[in-house]
Amino acid sequence: MSALTKIFIVLLTVFSIAFAMSTISFVAQTNDWKALAMDYQDAQRVIETKMVNQSSAHAAEKANWLDARREHLRQLRGREAGLQEAQQDLTAAKIELAQTKAARSAADALTQNLSGQLQLASAARDNEQAQREALQDRNVEVEKRNLDLNERVNELTAQILVFRQQQRQFEQQINILQDENQKLASITRRAAAGEFTVAGTDSVTPLEPVAATPIRGHILEVDGNLATVSVGSADGVQENMTFVIYRGSEYIGDLRITDLEPHSSAGTITRRRGTPRVDDLIADEARFGMAG
Fold first, then answer.
1. Residue 172 burial (CB count, 10 A)
2. DSSP codes, 26-51
3. What is the pTM (predicted TM-score) of this model?
4. Assigned architecture for domain 212-292
5. Gap between the Cα atoms of 171 and 178, Å rounded
6. Domain boundaries, the chain
7. pLDDT in tens, 164-208
8. What does the pLDDT look like over 205-232, one tens digit per residue?
9. Residue 270: phi, psi to the nearest 5?
C-alpha cells in the first residue's frame, strides 16, 4: 500500500469522525441526547479502536515498507557496484580490444612486409637459379671448348714433335753430308798427292734409318716399371727401341721395348719425370728427336 493511499484512509477516517459527531449533535438536538451520547461514545470507541488498529497496521506496513525500501536501496547499491564493475570490465575489454586491434594491425603489417620480402627472395632465387643455369650452360660450353682446346693442344704437340723429328732428320742429314764432304775432301787431297786413285764414291747412307712417318701409340697397361703399349712389330717397332711417354705437352718418361707382339709391345720405363698411366701417349724417340 502506497503512502498516498494511507493518507487518504486517515483523512477519510477523520472526516468520518467529524461527520459522525456532527450527525450525533444533530440527532441529540432532535432526539434523546443521552442515548445519542451513549451511542456516540460507543461509536467513538469503535472508531478509536479501528483507528488504533489501522494505526498499528499502518505502522507495521510502514515498517515493512521501510524494510523493503532499505532492501531495495541495498540491492540498488549492489547493482550500482556491479554496474561500476561491469563498466570497469567494459573499459578494460575496450582497452584490450584496442590493443588486440593494434597488435593485429602490426601483425598484418609484418605479414605484408614478410610477404614482400618473400616475393623479393623468390625473385632473387629465380634470378639466381637462372644465373646458375646460365653458368652451368656456360660451364658446359667452356668444358667443350676446353676439350676442343685440349685436342688442339694435342694436335699442336704432335705437330711440334713432327717438326722436331723433321728438324732432327735435317740435322742428321746435314751432319751426314758434312761428314761425307770431309771424307770426299780428304780423298781428293790424298788423290792429288798420288796416294790412290778414286774410281768413284759410294752412295751416302745416314747413320741411322729415317722413317717417313713416326710411330705413335698409347699406353694400355702400367705395372710398376713395366708398361704395355698399343703398337707392335706390324707398326715398325723393334726390340730395344726407345719411346717417349708424354701427356699433352708434359714429358713423363722413356720406355725401352723388350717384348714384341704384332700389334702390341711391352718394355721397361727407364727414366721418368712423372707417373705414367693408361692412355698416356708415346712417340718414337729416335724419329722425334726427343733424346736428352
1. 16
2. HHHHHS-HHHHHHHHHHHHHHHHHHH
3. 0.30
4. Beta Barrel (2.40)
5. 10
6. 212-292
7. 766 766 776 787 787 777 777 777 776 666 544 434 334 333 333
8. 333 344 446 789 999 999 989 999 999 9
9. -85, -35
